[in-house]
Amino acid sequence: LYIVDKLERLNEDDKFRTDYNVELVRRKEINSARLDGFDDGYDAGAKAEKIEIAKNFLKDGISIEVVSRNTGLSIEELEELNN
């Protein structure tokens, strides 16, 4: 009954419909921002892990080219780490 009542109000009440649509948009934006934040955090963590692995490879004397190929980090990034 609750859902039926809401649907009837959506059909009959313009202000309610407008408020409802604004709330839907707001919730979608919040969810989108939350997902973007999650993705950004995940990417930052993955990058930090690659850097840590690269540092260990470089300490073990593995060439920059091999480390770059296996971590996806650029040679320039690895040269900065190696200094």
TrEMBL record:
Protein name, per record: ATPase
Native organism taxonomy: Bacteria, Bacillati, Bacillota, Bacilli, Candidatus Onthousia
